Amino acid sequence: MIWSALFAFASLATAAPQFGGGGGGSGGSTGHGTSLVRFGCSQVVIERLDPLVNPGVLPSPHVHQVVGGNAFNASMASTDVSGIASCTTCNFPDDLSNYWTANLYFQARNGSYKRVPQIHNRMEDGYEGGTTVYYVSPGSGKVTAFKPGFRMLVGDTTLRTKPTGVNMKTQSCFRCYTGPNFKGDDLSPCADPKLDTETLPAGPCLGGIRSNIHFPTCWDGKNLDSPNHKDHVAYPTSGPSSFATTGTCPSSHPVKIPQVMLEIVWDTTGFNDKSEWPADGSQPFVLSNGDKTGYAQHADYVFGWKGDALQKLMDGGCFGAATCNGVKTQTAATANKCAVKDTVAEDTNGWLTELPGHGME
């Protein structure tokens, strides 16, 4: 997201009572208590593993790009992940969490597939592919950081049509950049009525495609997980919050937790030759789970911050880049050294006759 939009948000938050205006921190802080933390994470592995939805299954049904700590595995016990991982691909070395999302593939007119590369986001030079992670708090003491063993899932990998009465755009959206260097990135995520869509863009995007995913912001205060990885969390009573806003939590989930948003940028510019697109003119991109609509975009989160590092960020009035007081950072070069050994022996990058795991869904 463009920095001018971030600073516009900061100005708005200062005056907005829902953001706890009037608090503040020092050095890298908003000066009014609101924390909006944005940082890059390089990919730690790309493969067919999903320890939440398909624990112990190797390989799982579809490919994910994973970022974060090197404890990622086919199975991950509900425990303190920060005590297992030894490094992370994220800007904060204390964030040993894992975040993973579906990959995007291009399907050529001849039916073959090629994975679309994920590229570093704006102002994240040096990070390899990966994801931009946001954590938002309306003010000091306003949210409760996740506990060791916490995990959650947002989205439905089986979804192919829009659910009735649901505004999907506030949960997941796609931005069609209009030119190089993130051109068209002028409004906050999912807020542009022209460039942001609930589905994958219908036409060529001259600067690539960005995916934004918002996690729920309310917790039942008891369970670190639930059988479907969703029931222990909820969106506000008014529905999914737009970026950097929080609403009233339902009585069933009264504890407000940080708003987590993931931002993924795909470089689709190498696939804009419409002579290679389907003969019927339909858009050629498909998520790794086989979805051509975009409704089945989803994201998984396993909490792994060390100690009280995340609570400090959420209470410290931190803003924008990873320059918050009291929490360590590391360079992209250091983050890029962290990796997870590929445990599924298959090609996910070359031209393929079918999507990896095709038929397992």
From TrEMBL:
- Please indicate if the UniProt record lists Signal as a keyword: yes
Instruction: Please state the span of the N-terminal signal peptide per the UniProt entry.
Output: 1-15
Give the residues annotated as coiled coil.
none
What would be one Pfam family of this protein? DUF1996
The DUF1996 domain is annotated at: 50-305
Q: Which PANTHER family match?
A: DUF1996 DOMAIN-CONTAINING PROTEIN, PTHR43662
Give the protein name, as stated in the record. DUF1996 domain-containing protein
Q: What is the lineage of its organism?
A: Eukaryota, Fungi, Dikarya, Ascomycota, Pezizomycotina
